[in-house]
Design goal:
heterodimer, A: alpha+beta, D-Maltodextrin-Binding Protein, domain 2, 2 domains, 5-stranded mixed sheet, globular, B: MetI-like fold, two-stranded antiparallel sheet
């Protein structure tokens, strides 16, 4: 059938391509003063234009950007190249949750000796912890952070007389009022395909899914803090006032455009997504801090956020580390990141200078970045483990079934399932666990 | 497998005078191997060696020291049959196997049934627009699996589906194809839609080789079109049906593209929905090639056993024509 006829043809073509790809990984030993060519795998929008700012001012170290399919596929590609001992780039955009996995696979180089020790003071403690993993080594330079905020449709809120909720109790009330007024509309959706989103929500409540104790790993996905969050959302889905369908689907885009998804708990990079998915609603959204568990508190979680890492296969580690430090902390580099790639820089000092005007999708809210800046530093420490991907795919399965069943109890059992799958995987892989 | 000349007689090749035979034998001795050589080399390099390497990997595992962060923390060691034991006792994997067997039981009869029906219809004497019809039926096969899955994904999602839109205008409520009890049929539908064309072409080609004398004889005996199709044509093309069945069996056991593409759109497809998805998840998401290698060997052996068993089962009956 399809597979056998085209399969052999594909195998032949693939093997021919593989044989040629094998030879492209070798690099020459650099001589001082000679031009160095670096390869950078990234998926931030327009990163090649941002990198051009470096290339124009640093003729001896030229960086080429290879645009990747974002997130997990890029990590998979890097790990495969590391295993194959050739094909990995010099620089890699490393999301914080993927760093332990990449370090465990030996994919990232320790650049502590190649960067200024004063770099640490430029970032918040939780962000710096994500690139050092609590050890002495420095595995990456933080690029952006993803503090979570609450976006909502101001016009629809005005229409039904609603105000932006400041606590989770208020959020539930607002969701009920909205759904009662318009049975087709929802204040948000519980997405079983976005584990990073849920991790950020539990981070706000003080959860940390992994922990390090000496040389043992511990898994605490099923902690009290996570249970509270899971149970809360399970209740709302069971009531039917929050939708249970995944985000980032054609359905969800249509709902954003039509106004049946009225709010979105997301991170500071949300405007870029809204601009792509909900073009019709430009200028109708507003941003507010996430609802809190106790009135008057101020804490948030992180969803995503990446750093720039130097891979262990790079032949020019010092030059690559120099670029990584420059693009993420030099005023010109940070300005380019913010203006061209729409990245919210993790460098606290520089970001304030670089972000003076709101993003294009939020021209109706001039104080957009002031709102974000207030919450940006309030995320608690969250340790990611060496098998984050396993936990994330367990989330997909467990919460997919729970969301489909629309039962609050199922949300708690889903968390237990995630915990057991992740812990078992750690033990099966040979890690010592607590 | 000579389907072609059941009716004709052919002149067997007579060896020439003995004086000429030794020279042609000597000259031709190495030539077949030379022709096969490029294919054999490529087969060895790109299929045989990876298969052997996968079997080797399935007997290994990785040992971690300390926190596992940092160079030299992971070493590869022998695991014996531990990976196989884990695969064969994995509850979720066994469920995915059962699911894929059910999936095959739905896809194969429907797809081949439709392909046979279309082939017979196209072969009937009074058909009009034979050429365009063939192209239209074959066209879905030309669409790559990922594209067709995305296409059908849009048609299945109620918020963006034209079917739902049309039904809403008339006031009908359509069932959601991606609901847990219907999702298997939704995916089967995509496979059938894409696969009917290819199988139809194979069966149609086989039907075209049936000699016209049989049709004349049948008409003389007062056979109707349907009787002729059912009692004469189908038994004659039985070997082609066996061929397409085995291809379809092998393909459905390895279903991967359709559920993987549909998975982000819905809650009802898990990451280990089919065995091949489990293998992919183990190898690339869980970074555990060893487990994945063991599961692939299990899947390959099962596919081999099933297809060989099926062939053995129908061989006597289907290929009975050949012996004549």
């Amino acid at each position: 059938m399809r597979r056998t006829l085209c399969g052999s043809l594909a195998t032949l073509t693939l093997s021919a391509l593989l044989l040629t790809a094998c030879s492209s990984g070798s690099a020459d030993a650099p001589k001082t003063g000679e031009k160095v060519q670096l390869n950078y795998w990234s998926w931030a929008p327009d990163m090649d234009k941002t990198v051009k700012v470096w290339n124009d001012t640093h003729p001896n170290i030229q960086v080429t950007v290879n645009k990747q399919d974002g997130g997990d596929p890029a990590v998979t590609k890097l790990l495969t190249a590391i295993k194959a001992k050739s094909g990995a780039p010099d620089l890699m955009q490393a999301e914080y949750q993927a760093i332990p996995t990449m370090v465990a696979a030996g994919a990232l180089a320790d650049i502590k000796g190649d960067v200024d020790p004063a770099l640490q003071s430029k970032f918040s403690p939780s962000v710096w912890n994500s690139v050092t993993l609590g050890t002495d080594a420095v595995y990456a330079v933080p690029q952006d952070s993803g503090p979570m905020v609450f976006y909502y449709r101001e016009d629809i809120f005005k229409k039904y007389g609603l105000t932006a909720p400041t606590t989770w109790d208020e959020y539930a009330t607002t969701a009920r009022k909205l759904h009662k007024a318009d049975p087709k509309a929802f204040l948000g959706t519980f997405s079983a395909t976005d584990p990073g989103w849920f991790a950020g929500l539990t981070q706000q409540n003080g959860a940390s899914w992994w922990g390090i104790d000496g040389d043992k790993w511990s898994v605490a996905i099923d902690s009290e803090q996570s249970r509270k969050v899971a149970s809360y959302w399970g209740g709302l889905v069971q009531e039917g006032v929050i939708d249970n369908t995944p985000m980032y689907t054609p359905s969800w885009n249509a709902a954003l455009n039509k106004g049946t998804q009225v709010g979105w708990l997301s991170a500071v990079w949300g405007p870029g997504v809204l601009a792509g998915s909900a073009q019709n609603t430009k200028g109708k959204w507003k941003v507010a801090p996430m609802p809190q568990w106790t009135a008057g508190a101020s804490s948030t979680g992180n969803w995503g956020g990446s750093s720039t890492a130097v891979t262990s296969q790079s032949q020019h580690k010092a030059a690559a580390a120099q670029f990584a430090a420059w693009i993420n902390t030099d005023p010109a580099g940070v300005k380019a990141l913010a203006a061209i790639s729409n990245v919210y820089p993790a460098d606290k000092a520089e970001s304030a200078a670089a972000l003076s005007s709101p993003p294009a999708f939020f021209t109706n809210q001039p104080d957009f970045y002031n709102v974000v800046a207030k919450v940006a530093d309030t995320a608690g420490t969250f340790t990611y483990g060496p098998n984050t991907n396993v936990a994330y795919s367990a989330y997909n399965d467990a919460f997919g079934a729970a969301a489909q069943s629309k039962s609050q109890a199922a949300f708690s059992t889903a968390l237990t399932k995630m915990q057991s799958v992740t812990l078992k995987n750690l033990q099966d892989s040979g890690f010592s666990t607590k | 497998m000579a389907i072609v000349d059941s009716g004709k007689t052919h002149t067997p090749v007579q060896p020439a005078a003995p004086a000429r035979a030794p020279r042609s034998r000597r000259r031709g001795k190495g030539t077949p191997y030379l022709f096969i050589a490029p294919a054999a080399v490529l087969f060895t390099l790109s299929i045989a060696v990876p298969i052997l390497y996968a079997v080797y990997l399935s007997l290994r595992t990785v040992k971690v020291s300390g926190l596992g962060l940092g160079p030299g923390a992971r070493t590869e060691v022998w695991a014996g049959l531990k990976n196989y034991g884990r695969t064969l006792t994995d509850h979720d994997f066994l469920i995915s196997v059962g699911r894929v067997v059910l999936y095959g039981a739905v896809v194969i009869p429907v797809m081949l049934g439709l392909a046979l029906l279309f082939a017979l219809l196209l072969d009937s004497p009074r058909i009009r627009a034979r050429g365009p019809s063939r192209v239209v039926i074959f066209l879905p096969f030309a669409v790559p699996a990922v594209v067709s899955s995305l296409l059908w994904g849009f048609l299945y999602l109620p918020a963006v589906s034209p079917f739902t839109f049309a039904a809403d205008q008339v006031g009908i409520a359509l069932p959601h194809p991606l609901d847990p009890d219907l999702v298997l049929f939704a995916i089967a539908n995509i496979a059938v839609w894409g696969g009917v064309g290819f199988n139809m072409i194979v069966l149609y080609t086989a039907l075209r080789t049936i000699p016209t004398e049989l049709r004349d004889a049948a008409e003389l005996d007062g056979c109707s079109e349907i009787q002729f199709a059912w009692r004469v044509k189908v038994p004659i093309i039985a070997p082609s049906l066996v061929l397409t069945s085995i291809f379809s069996l092998i393909a459905t056991l390895q279903v991967f593209a359709e559920p993987t593409v549909l998975r982000p759109l819905t809650n009802t497809i898990s990451t280990g929905w089919s065995p091949l998805m489990t293998i992919y998840r183990d190898a690339f998401t869980r970074d555990d090639v060893y487990s994945a290698a063991a599961t692939s060997v299990v899947l390959a052996v099962a596919t081999f056993v099933l297809s060989f068993g099926f062939l053995r089962l129908v061989q006597a009956k289907a290929f009975a024509q050949e012996s004549r």
